[in-house]
Design brief:
Number of helices: 16
Number of strands: 17
Shape: globular
Number of domains: 2
CATH superfamily of the largest domain: Metal-dependent hydrolases
Largest sheet: 9 strands, parallel
Low-confidence stretches: none
Strand content: 15-25%
Distance between the termini: 33 Å
Structural class: alpha/beta
Bound molecules: zinc ion
Length: 454
Amino acid sequence: MSNYTHIFQGTAFSSNSLKELHILENHLFCINAEGMIEKVVAPADEDYDTLLSMYEGKENFHRLAKGQYFLPGFVDLHVHAPQWAQSGTALDIPLFDWLNTYTFPIESKFSDLSFAKMVYEDVVSTLLANGTTTALYFATVHKEASILLAEICAKKGQRGLVGKVVMDDPEQTPTYYRDADTKTALVDTEEFILAVKELAKSVKQGVYPVVTPRFIPSCTSEGLQGLGELAAKYDTYIQSHCSESDWAHQYVQERYGKNDAFALHDFGLLREKSVMAHCNFLDDADADLFAQTGTAISHCPISNAYFANSVIPLAHFHAKGVEIGLGSDISGGFSPSLFDNIRQAVMSSRMLEDGVNPALPANERGVPNARITVNEAFYFATAGGGESLSLPIGRLAENYTWDVQVIDTTIPSARLPIYEANEPLHDIFQKMMYLARPENIREVWVQGEKVHSR
Ligand SMILES: [Zn+2]
Protein backbone atom coordinates (compact mmCIF):
# COMPACT_ATOMS: atom_id res chain seq x y z
CA MET A 1 0.00 0.00 0.00
CA SER A 2 1.27 3.41 -1.03
CA ASN A 3 3.21 5.59 1.34
CA TYR A 4 0.98 8.63 1.75
CA THR A 5 2.16 12.00 3.03
CA HIS A 6 -1.12 12.60 4.84
CA ILE A 7 -4.38 10.81 5.44
CA PHE A 8 -7.48 12.77 6.40
CA GLN A 9 -10.65 11.21 7.76
CA GLY A 10 -13.97 13.01 7.77
CA THR A 11 -17.11 14.02 5.92
CA ALA A 12 -16.66 16.15 2.82
CA PHE A 13 -18.91 17.98 0.37
CA SER A 14 -17.90 18.38 -3.26
CA SER A 15 -19.73 19.09 -6.52
CA ASN A 16 -20.04 16.23 -8.96
CA SER A 17 -21.78 18.51 -11.43
CA LEU A 18 -23.75 21.74 -11.48
CA LYS A 19 -26.82 20.03 -9.99
CA GLU A 20 -25.31 17.17 -8.03
CA LEU A 21 -23.68 17.64 -4.66
CA HIS A 22 -21.49 14.70 -3.66
CA ILE A 23 -21.49 13.92 0.06
CA LEU A 24 -18.56 11.75 1.10
CA GLU A 25 -19.47 10.61 4.60
CA ASN A 26 -16.57 9.67 6.82
CA HIS A 27 -14.21 8.98 3.92
CA LEU A 28 -10.42 8.70 3.92
CA PHE A 29 -8.49 11.09 1.70
CA CYS A 30 -4.99 9.86 0.92
CA ILE A 31 -2.59 12.64 -0.07
CA ASN A 32 0.71 12.11 -1.85
CA ALA A 33 3.93 14.11 -1.78
CA GLU A 34 2.77 16.29 -4.67
CA GLY A 35 -0.22 17.41 -2.60
CA MET A 36 -2.68 15.52 -4.80
CA ILE A 37 -5.55 13.36 -3.63
CA GLU A 38 -4.22 9.97 -4.72
CA LYS A 39 -7.03 7.89 -3.31
CA VAL A 40 -10.48 8.43 -1.81
CA VAL A 41 -11.65 5.51 0.30
CA ALA A 42 -15.24 4.96 1.44
CA PRO A 43 -15.97 3.13 4.72
CA ALA A 44 -17.36 0.17 2.73
CA ASP A 45 -14.13 -0.22 0.70
CA GLU A 46 -11.87 -3.12 1.64
CA ASP A 47 -8.82 -0.85 2.09
CA TYR A 48 -10.55 1.31 4.67
CA ASP A 49 -9.74 -0.66 7.81
CA THR A 50 -6.26 -1.57 6.59
CA LEU A 51 -5.41 2.09 6.03
CA LEU A 52 -6.85 3.06 9.38
CA SER A 53 -4.78 0.46 11.20
CA MET A 54 -1.65 1.59 9.35
CA TYR A 55 -2.02 5.34 9.87
CA GLU A 56 -4.27 5.93 12.90
CA GLY A 57 -2.39 7.64 15.72
CA LYS A 58 0.47 8.75 13.49
CA GLU A 59 1.42 12.40 13.10
CA ASN A 60 0.26 12.50 9.47
CA PHE A 61 -3.19 11.09 10.26
CA HIS A 62 -5.87 13.77 10.66
CA ARG A 63 -9.37 12.95 11.86
CA LEU A 64 -11.97 15.70 11.90
CA ALA A 65 -13.62 16.35 15.23
CA LYS A 66 -17.39 16.11 15.63
CA GLY A 67 -19.12 19.02 13.91
CA GLN A 68 -16.24 19.58 11.46
CA TYR A 69 -16.47 19.12 7.70
CA PHE A 70 -14.26 19.37 4.61
CA LEU A 71 -15.14 21.70 1.77
CA PRO A 72 -13.00 22.27 -1.32
CA GLY A 73 -11.02 25.51 -1.16
CA PHE A 74 -12.71 28.33 -3.05
CA VAL A 75 -11.50 29.58 -6.42
CA ASP A 76 -11.89 33.37 -6.62
CA LEU A 77 -11.82 34.28 -10.30
CA HIS A 78 -11.68 38.05 -9.93
CA VAL A 79 -9.79 40.03 -7.30
CA HIS A 80 -8.16 43.45 -7.59
CA ALA A 81 -5.50 42.93 -4.94
CA PRO A 82 -4.58 46.65 -4.57
CA GLN A 83 -8.22 47.61 -4.06
CA TRP A 84 -8.27 45.72 -0.77
CA ALA A 85 -6.96 49.03 0.58
CA GLN A 86 -10.32 50.68 -0.18
CA SER A 87 -12.72 47.78 0.33
CA GLY A 88 -16.12 48.86 1.54
CA THR A 89 -15.75 52.48 0.49
CA ALA A 90 -17.30 54.54 -2.28
CA LEU A 91 -19.85 52.00 -3.43
CA ASP A 92 -22.50 54.67 -3.92
CA ILE A 93 -21.20 56.21 -7.15
CA PRO A 94 -21.24 54.98 -10.79
CA LEU A 95 -18.40 52.85 -12.21
CA PHE A 96 -16.77 55.61 -14.26
CA ASP A 97 -16.63 58.01 -11.29
CA TRP A 98 -15.60 55.23 -8.90
CA LEU A 99 -12.62 54.42 -11.09
CA ASN A 100 -11.45 57.99 -11.52
CA THR A 101 -12.17 59.37 -8.06
CA TYR A 102 -11.14 56.45 -5.88
CA THR A 103 -9.68 53.47 -7.66
CA PHE A 104 -7.03 54.90 -9.97
CA PRO A 105 -5.59 57.11 -7.17
CA ILE A 106 -5.26 54.14 -4.79
CA GLU A 107 -3.80 51.86 -7.46
CA SER A 108 -1.23 54.51 -8.39
CA LYS A 109 0.24 54.22 -4.88
CA PHE A 110 1.53 50.74 -5.69
CA SER A 111 4.60 52.26 -7.33
CA ASP A 112 5.71 52.29 -3.67
CA LEU A 113 6.83 48.72 -2.94
CA SER A 114 6.58 49.05 0.82
CA PHE A 115 2.94 50.12 0.53
CA ALA A 116 2.36 47.29 -1.95
CA LYS A 117 3.92 44.77 0.40
CA MET A 118 1.73 45.85 3.30
CA VAL A 119 -1.54 45.58 1.34
CA TYR A 120 -0.62 42.46 -0.65
CA GLU A 121 0.52 40.48 2.40
CA ASP A 122 -2.77 41.36 4.04
CA VAL A 123 -5.06 40.56 1.12
CA VAL A 124 -3.48 37.16 0.47
CA SER A 125 -3.70 36.21 4.17
CA THR A 126 -7.28 37.48 4.34
CA LEU A 127 -8.40 35.48 1.32
CA LEU A 128 -6.75 32.33 2.68
CA ALA A 129 -8.51 32.86 6.02
CA ASN A 130 -11.77 33.10 4.08
CA GLY A 131 -11.17 29.74 2.43
CA THR A 132 -9.91 30.98 -0.93
CA THR A 133 -7.10 28.67 -2.00
CA THR A 134 -6.80 29.90 -5.61
CA ALA A 135 -7.14 33.51 -6.70
CA LEU A 136 -7.00 35.23 -10.07
CA TYR A 137 -5.59 38.66 -9.32
CA PHE A 138 -5.35 41.98 -11.07
CA ALA A 139 -2.36 43.82 -9.61
CA THR A 140 -1.57 47.32 -10.94
CA VAL A 141 0.32 48.75 -13.92
CA HIS A 142 3.58 48.51 -11.93
CA LYS A 143 5.75 45.58 -12.97
CA GLU A 144 7.78 45.27 -9.75
CA ALA A 145 4.77 45.41 -7.43
CA SER A 146 2.97 42.86 -9.61
CA ILE A 147 5.91 40.46 -9.32
CA LEU A 148 5.87 41.10 -5.57
CA LEU A 149 2.23 39.97 -5.40
CA ALA A 150 3.15 36.69 -7.13
CA GLU A 151 6.03 36.24 -4.67
CA ILE A 152 3.72 36.81 -1.71
CA CYS A 153 1.23 34.21 -3.03
CA ALA A 154 4.15 31.80 -3.48
CA LYS A 155 5.39 32.38 0.05
CA LYS A 156 2.02 32.19 1.78
CA GLY A 157 1.06 29.03 -0.08
CA GLN A 158 -1.82 30.38 -2.13
CA ARG A 159 -2.22 29.39 -5.77
CA GLY A 160 -2.00 32.85 -7.31
CA LEU A 161 -2.66 33.79 -10.92
CA VAL A 162 -1.40 37.33 -11.19
CA GLY A 163 -1.65 39.99 -13.86
CA LYS A 164 0.28 43.18 -14.36
CA VAL A 165 -2.49 45.51 -15.50
CA VAL A 166 -2.15 47.26 -18.86
CA MET A 167 -3.64 50.75 -19.31
CA ASP A 168 -1.86 52.31 -22.26
CA ASP A 169 -4.46 54.65 -23.77
CA PRO A 170 -3.55 58.19 -22.73
CA GLU A 171 -6.97 59.47 -23.76
CA GLN A 172 -8.80 57.20 -21.35
CA THR A 173 -6.42 57.01 -18.37
CA PRO A 174 -5.12 59.66 -15.95
CA THR A 175 -1.58 61.01 -16.35
CA TYR A 176 -0.61 59.77 -12.88
CA TYR A 177 -1.72 56.19 -13.51
CA ARG A 178 -1.01 54.55 -16.85
CA ASP A 179 1.72 52.72 -18.75
CA ALA A 180 4.36 55.12 -20.13
CA ASP A 181 3.36 54.09 -23.65
CA THR A 182 2.20 51.03 -25.57
CA LYS A 183 5.68 49.69 -26.22
CA THR A 184 6.61 49.94 -22.53
CA ALA A 185 3.34 48.26 -21.54
CA LEU A 186 4.16 45.28 -23.76
CA VAL A 187 7.83 45.06 -22.73
CA ASP A 188 6.86 45.25 -19.05
CA THR A 189 4.21 42.56 -19.58
CA GLU A 190 6.71 40.25 -21.28
CA GLU A 191 9.28 40.77 -18.51
CA PHE A 192 6.57 40.17 -15.94
CA ILE A 193 5.53 36.90 -17.63
CA LEU A 194 9.14 35.67 -17.68
CA ALA A 195 9.73 36.63 -14.04
CA VAL A 196 6.62 34.82 -12.80
CA LYS A 197 7.39 31.75 -14.92
CA GLU A 198 10.84 31.67 -13.31
CA LEU A 199 9.33 32.06 -9.83
CA ALA A 200 6.86 29.25 -10.57
CA LYS A 201 9.65 26.71 -10.96
CA SER A 202 10.05 26.55 -7.18
CA VAL A 203 6.39 26.91 -6.11
CA LYS A 204 4.58 23.71 -5.20
CA GLN A 205 1.03 25.02 -5.52
CA GLY A 206 1.79 27.02 -8.67
CA VAL A 207 1.85 30.70 -9.54
CA TYR A 208 0.94 31.86 -13.01
CA PRO A 209 1.36 35.06 -15.02
CA VAL A 210 -1.81 36.48 -16.54
CA VAL A 211 -2.03 38.83 -19.52
CA THR A 212 -4.27 41.61 -18.19
CA PRO A 213 -5.65 44.43 -20.31
CA ARG A 214 -7.73 46.28 -17.70
CA PHE A 215 -10.60 46.59 -20.13
CA ILE A 216 -11.02 47.86 -23.65
CA PRO A 217 -11.70 51.47 -22.59
CA SER A 218 -8.24 51.85 -21.01
CA CYS A 219 -6.21 50.21 -23.81
CA THR A 220 -5.19 51.11 -27.35
CA SER A 221 -5.88 48.72 -30.22
CA GLU A 222 -2.10 48.25 -30.63
CA GLY A 223 -1.82 47.40 -26.95
CA LEU A 224 -4.64 44.86 -27.12
CA GLN A 225 -3.16 43.29 -30.25
CA GLY A 226 0.28 43.01 -28.62
CA LEU A 227 -1.18 41.44 -25.49
CA GLY A 228 -3.04 38.83 -27.54
CA GLU A 229 0.25 37.96 -29.23
CA LEU A 230 2.11 37.69 -25.90
CA ALA A 231 -0.58 35.39 -24.50
CA ALA A 232 -0.23 33.12 -27.54
CA LYS A 233 3.57 33.21 -27.45
CA TYR A 234 3.78 32.17 -23.79
CA ASP A 235 0.47 30.26 -23.58
CA THR A 236 -0.63 32.36 -20.59
CA TYR A 237 -3.91 33.01 -18.90
CA ILE A 238 -5.78 36.15 -19.96
CA GLN A 239 -8.15 38.22 -17.88
CA SER A 240 -10.08 41.40 -18.42
CA HIS A 241 -13.50 42.94 -17.86
CA CYS A 242 -16.20 42.30 -20.43
CA SER A 243 -19.60 43.94 -20.96
CA GLU A 244 -19.88 44.90 -17.31
CA SER A 245 -22.14 47.95 -17.23
CA ASP A 246 -24.26 50.06 -19.57
CA TRP A 247 -21.42 52.54 -19.86
CA ALA A 248 -18.65 50.00 -20.56
CA HIS A 249 -20.84 48.04 -22.96
CA GLN A 250 -21.79 51.15 -24.94
CA TYR A 251 -18.24 52.49 -25.00
CA VAL A 252 -17.01 49.39 -26.86
CA GLN A 253 -20.01 49.46 -29.21
CA GLU A 254 -19.20 53.05 -30.15
CA ARG A 255 -15.47 52.40 -30.59
CA TYR A 256 -15.58 49.13 -32.52
CA GLY A 257 -19.19 48.78 -33.67
CA LYS A 258 -19.45 45.43 -31.92
CA ASN A 259 -19.77 43.93 -28.48
CA ASP A 260 -16.85 43.42 -26.11
CA ALA A 261 -16.67 39.69 -26.75
CA PHE A 262 -16.11 39.99 -30.51
CA ALA A 263 -13.76 42.95 -30.07
CA LEU A 264 -11.62 41.00 -27.57
CA HIS A 265 -11.70 37.98 -29.89
CA ASP A 266 -10.36 40.09 -32.77
CA PHE A 267 -7.27 40.77 -30.64
CA GLY A 268 -6.69 37.11 -29.77
CA LEU A 269 -7.86 37.62 -26.20
CA LEU A 270 -10.55 34.93 -26.02
CA ARG A 271 -8.86 31.58 -25.51
CA GLU A 272 -9.25 28.43 -23.41
CA LYS A 273 -7.23 30.17 -20.70
CA SER A 274 -9.28 33.39 -20.75
CA VAL A 275 -11.46 34.50 -17.85
CA MET A 276 -13.63 37.57 -18.31
CA ALA A 277 -15.15 39.36 -15.36
CA HIS A 278 -18.85 40.23 -15.17
CA CYS A 279 -20.17 39.71 -18.74
CA ASN A 280 -23.68 40.82 -17.74
CA PHE A 281 -24.48 42.23 -21.17
CA LEU A 282 -23.35 39.34 -23.34
CA ASP A 283 -25.90 38.57 -26.04
CA ASP A 284 -26.44 35.02 -27.31
CA ALA A 285 -23.84 35.33 -30.07
CA ASP A 286 -21.30 36.59 -27.49
CA ALA A 287 -22.10 33.66 -25.19
CA ASP A 288 -21.73 31.19 -28.07
CA LEU A 289 -18.32 32.72 -28.83
CA PHE A 290 -17.33 32.25 -25.18
CA ALA A 291 -18.40 28.60 -25.32
CA GLN A 292 -16.55 27.98 -28.61
CA THR A 293 -13.30 29.57 -27.42
CA GLY A 294 -13.40 28.10 -23.90
CA THR A 295 -13.54 31.56 -22.37
CA ALA A 296 -14.97 31.56 -18.85
CA ILE A 297 -17.17 34.08 -17.08
CA SER A 298 -16.17 35.27 -13.63
CA HIS A 299 -19.49 36.15 -12.02
CA CYS A 300 -19.16 38.77 -9.29
CA PRO A 301 -22.63 39.07 -7.77
CA ILE A 302 -21.91 41.55 -4.98
CA SER A 303 -20.00 43.89 -7.26
CA ASN A 304 -22.72 43.59 -9.89
CA ALA A 305 -25.30 44.87 -7.42
CA TYR A 306 -23.36 48.14 -7.27
CA PHE A 307 -21.87 48.63 -10.72
CA ALA A 308 -23.42 46.37 -13.35
CA ASN A 309 -26.85 47.98 -13.74
CA SER A 310 -28.33 44.49 -14.10
CA VAL A 311 -28.35 40.86 -12.97
CA ILE A 312 -26.51 38.44 -15.23
CA PRO A 313 -28.66 35.61 -16.69
CA LEU A 314 -26.26 33.02 -15.30
CA ALA A 315 -28.45 29.94 -15.75
CA HIS A 316 -28.97 30.86 -19.41
CA PHE A 317 -25.25 31.26 -20.10
CA HIS A 318 -24.43 28.01 -18.34
CA ALA A 319 -27.06 26.22 -20.40
CA LYS A 320 -25.29 27.54 -23.50
CA GLY A 321 -22.11 25.76 -22.42
CA VAL A 322 -20.11 28.68 -21.02
CA GLU A 323 -17.74 27.89 -18.14
CA ILE A 324 -18.56 29.97 -15.07
CA GLY A 325 -16.86 30.65 -11.75
CA LEU A 326 -17.38 33.17 -8.95
CA GLY A 327 -15.37 36.28 -8.16
CA SER A 328 -15.31 38.61 -5.19
CA ASP A 329 -14.23 41.57 -7.37
CA ILE A 330 -12.61 43.27 -4.43
CA SER A 331 -13.34 46.13 -4.13
CA GLY A 332 -16.24 46.59 -6.53
CA GLY A 333 -17.48 43.84 -4.22
CA PHE A 334 -16.77 44.67 -0.60
CA SER A 335 -16.38 41.14 0.75
CA PRO A 336 -13.28 38.92 0.64
CA SER A 337 -15.52 35.89 1.19
CA LEU A 338 -16.85 33.64 -1.53
CA PHE A 339 -19.43 32.42 1.00
CA ASP A 340 -20.87 35.94 0.81
CA ASN A 341 -20.76 35.79 -2.98
CA ILE A 342 -22.45 32.37 -3.08
CA ARG A 343 -25.29 33.87 -1.03
CA GLN A 344 -25.57 36.95 -3.23
CA ALA A 345 -25.46 34.88 -6.43
CA VAL A 346 -28.49 32.92 -5.25
CA MET A 347 -30.36 36.02 -4.05
CA SER A 348 -29.66 38.05 -7.18
CA SER A 349 -30.81 35.20 -9.42
CA ARG A 350 -34.06 34.95 -7.46
CA MET A 351 -34.64 38.67 -7.93
CA LEU A 352 -33.97 38.33 -11.65
CA GLU A 353 -36.48 35.49 -11.91
CA ASP A 354 -39.22 37.20 -9.92
CA GLY A 355 -38.44 40.74 -11.07
CA VAL A 356 -38.24 43.66 -8.69
CA ASN A 357 -40.80 46.27 -9.70
CA PRO A 358 -44.05 45.62 -7.82
CA ALA A 359 -45.90 48.07 -10.10
CA LEU A 360 -45.65 45.49 -12.89
CA PRO A 361 -47.94 42.47 -13.09
CA ALA A 362 -46.26 39.26 -11.90
CA ASN A 363 -46.07 37.74 -15.36
CA GLU A 364 -44.16 40.73 -16.74
CA ARG A 365 -41.89 41.33 -13.80
CA GLY A 366 -39.05 38.86 -14.15
CA VAL A 367 -37.05 36.46 -16.31
CA PRO A 368 -38.37 32.88 -16.19
CA ASN A 369 -35.99 30.11 -15.08
CA ALA A 370 -33.27 32.54 -14.00
CA ARG A 371 -32.82 31.27 -10.46
CA ILE A 372 -29.86 29.20 -9.32
CA THR A 373 -29.74 27.05 -6.20
CA VAL A 374 -27.18 27.21 -3.43
CA ASN A 375 -25.73 23.90 -4.69
CA GLU A 376 -25.19 25.54 -8.07
CA ALA A 377 -23.58 28.63 -6.55
CA PHE A 378 -21.26 26.34 -4.54
CA TYR A 379 -20.38 24.55 -7.78
CA PHE A 380 -19.41 27.88 -9.39
CA ALA A 381 -17.24 28.81 -6.37
CA THR A 382 -15.35 25.50 -6.49
CA ALA A 383 -15.52 23.06 -9.41
CA GLY A 384 -16.68 25.73 -11.88
CA GLY A 385 -13.69 27.89 -10.97
CA GLY A 386 -11.38 24.93 -11.50
CA GLU A 387 -12.87 24.19 -14.92
CA SER A 388 -12.61 27.85 -15.86
CA LEU A 389 -8.88 27.73 -15.17
CA SER A 390 -8.44 24.19 -16.59
CA LEU A 391 -6.70 23.15 -13.36
CA PRO A 392 -7.35 20.01 -11.25
CA ILE A 393 -8.81 22.04 -8.39
CA GLY A 394 -12.19 22.70 -6.81
CA ARG A 395 -13.29 19.11 -6.16
CA LEU A 396 -12.49 16.58 -3.49
CA ALA A 397 -11.84 13.65 -5.79
CA GLU A 398 -8.92 11.53 -6.93
CA ASN A 399 -6.32 13.35 -9.02
CA TYR A 400 -7.41 16.72 -7.69
CA THR A 401 -5.26 18.87 -5.41
CA TRP A 402 -5.72 18.72 -1.66
CA ASP A 403 -7.09 22.27 -1.43
CA VAL A 404 -9.56 22.27 1.43
CA GLN A 405 -11.14 24.30 4.16
CA VAL A 406 -12.11 22.65 7.42
CA ILE A 407 -15.40 24.12 8.61
CA ASP A 408 -16.10 23.86 12.33
CA THR A 409 -19.80 24.29 13.03
CA THR A 410 -19.28 24.32 16.81
CA ILE A 411 -17.19 27.51 17.30
CA PRO A 412 -18.78 29.23 20.33
CA SER A 413 -18.84 32.70 18.72
CA ALA A 414 -20.27 31.37 15.45
CA ARG A 415 -22.06 28.17 16.30
CA LEU A 416 -24.34 26.88 13.56
CA PRO A 417 -27.89 25.91 14.62
CA ILE A 418 -27.42 22.15 14.44
CA TYR A 419 -29.25 20.42 17.28
CA GLU A 420 -30.19 16.95 16.18
CA ALA A 421 -27.63 14.17 16.10
CA ASN A 422 -28.99 12.76 12.86
CA GLU A 423 -29.62 15.99 10.99
CA PRO A 424 -29.35 15.27 7.25
CA LEU A 425 -25.92 16.16 5.89
CA HIS A 426 -27.47 18.11 3.04
CA ASP A 427 -29.19 20.38 5.55
CA ILE A 428 -25.89 20.89 7.38
CA PHE A 429 -24.30 21.76 4.05
CA GLN A 430 -26.92 24.42 3.40
CA LYS A 431 -26.44 25.89 6.87
CA MET A 432 -22.71 26.12 6.24
CA MET A 433 -23.30 27.84 2.90
CA TYR A 434 -25.58 30.46 4.43
CA LEU A 435 -24.18 30.90 7.94
CA ALA A 436 -20.46 30.12 7.93
CA ARG A 437 -18.22 32.99 8.92
CA PRO A 438 -14.42 33.26 8.81
CA GLU A 439 -14.32 32.06 12.46
CA ASN A 440 -15.76 28.73 11.34
CA ILE A 441 -12.84 28.12 8.96
CA ARG A 442 -10.47 26.29 11.28
CA GLU A 443 -7.87 25.17 8.75
CA VAL A 444 -7.04 25.82 5.13
CA TRP A 445 -4.80 23.55 3.06
CA VAL A 446 -3.38 24.16 -0.41
CA GLN A 447 -1.69 21.40 -2.42
CA GLY A 448 -1.31 19.27 0.71
CA GLU A 449 0.22 22.05 2.84
CA LYS A 450 -1.49 23.77 5.78
CA VAL A 451 -1.57 27.49 5.04
CA HIS A 452 -3.99 28.79 7.66
CA SER A 453 -5.30 27.70 11.03
CA ARG A 454 -7.15 29.31 13.91
ZN1 LIG B 1 -12.83 44.13 -11.69
